[in-house]
Specification:
The chain is an alpha/beta fold and 592 residues long. Helix content is 30%, strand content 20%.
Length: 592
Amino acid sequence: MKKMCSLPVVKLEVFEISFFFSFYGVLYLHKVIKSVFDALPHFLPSFGTCDARDFGIEQQKSVALMWFSSNNLPTWQMSSSERASLLRPQGLEDLRKTSPAPRSMKQRLSDPAWAWPLATLGFVAVFVPIVLLILAVEDPDVGRSLSHDSLLRSLYPRNILTHLSALDEIAKEHNGTRSIGEGYNASAKYVADLLYTKLARWCDVQLQPFVAPVWERTGPANLTVDYAEGKWRVEYQEGVDFAPMRYGGQSAVLADQQVLEIPDHGCNVSDFADVVGKIALIREGLGAGACELWEAAWTAEQHNATAVIFYNSPKRRSLLFNRIRIVAWKEGDPLMTIPVIAVTASLGQTLALASAAGIGRVDLSTNTAITLHTTHNVLCVGKHGDDDNRILVGAHLDSVPAGPGLVDNASGSATLLEILLLLERHHPRFYTHNKLVFAWWGAEEVGLLGSRHYVRTLPKKEKRKIVASLNFDMLASPNGIPFIHNGTDAPSVVRQASVQLQHAFEQYYNRKKRDYEITDMTAGSDFLPFLEGGIPSGGILTGAGEFKTEEQRHIFGGFANTPMDPCYHRSRSFVLTFVCLIITRSIALPAR
């Protein structure tokens, strides 16, 4: 009978994770990455629609050093033959990393050389701790520990780039996006085909269908208010004074509409009695006692209002952009049909005064659509390990409609694929104590609907088998830093186990003397449905649209006062530059 090692042994009461790591292995990865960074020229003008201006003056001076300063990368020497095998013939003079806040670099190449900070962060700072968290490496026949050198040498950054390049091509073929619809379906097919062809003996591949609503703007909106019977008409500017709200109904054209302000933020049903045939004007509610905007809007529609206008509280500067929909929407739940728009605090107050005075007529037209799409999650349920103590490893596969989502979140999806392929390459020598379930979630960008569907439809008996859920959303932010999710944010019933997941990642980074930060685990990604479902969760990420501070810059390098992903949710992902034809110079880790 084959003996299986117990790394990691995961239980709700006692969570024990041991890390094994070959320092030689990480140095080798660092060596390759360092040499590639030495070749990185000034490539910002190649960003297409997300151009150099988005990165500020300082980035344009020091792109090659965007992540790692002297306290991030060890110092070593590379032989000329090693360098020649990785770089173009002319090479580059070694870049000195003597300052924790690098400001400039020498430009020695006249044309771009595609480099790969993605491989740096995704494999050294992110990929390796993920692998070591879930992998058990022991000879199943004799119980003798195996060298980890062979495992670490199997971590090929070029494979992630291969996946990213494929997903980028899929986006190009589908109007520049991999969001719900044909773009996502093609992405899911790419993942599923790899699972079926290369991993069938390791896991059972499943496609889990579900229905998701998609909201989109199909044209401009117009808002005009007549304050004095045609003598004083004001036309307001979309995007400045007002904007349609997500899932705020279908297209509509309304003329000469009376406005009625609803008191108490629309939280009392009795206040809607007189809204029939009128536009409901509702002020944003703040604090724990405020009802959800969806509830107020839906109540207005149920009382035959013609539209809903939400206006900001005075402290809010930007227009509301909430989803006017049930948060955990599922097939059969209602959706708005009447228009819902947001306006500024000043415009809302003006409309409220006009309504109270019995004046003010509104013309409103919107061009929006809500459609239902059948999409699916892609699952790979492992065939080995303790079935009563499963670890679920997940990443969302969809992008926002605005772009290809190569950082958010093809980077996480590609990492999961490579972990699975690593398991397959070393099967049957490498075993996991726990059964692993890999998941690529759909419809994350429209409210975590894929992971919500999975947790909601999971039988109680199966749910109890999942002792930990690991979430990996955005592992390659160009100006990012390693973040670990804060387990203390988890609900009390799963807080202790979630904190131990956090500590497992911390132990790895501390042992390797790598800097990291703790970030919240409250909302915004697919860990949330699992926490709400009573399943311990954790994970790592590298940052989204938040700005890197001066302090973070001195610790992690990169660029202060600049987003960690400068093209977050925009039409062109930053990583696309590095993915182009899998780094056309064929840079890769040589096998040993």
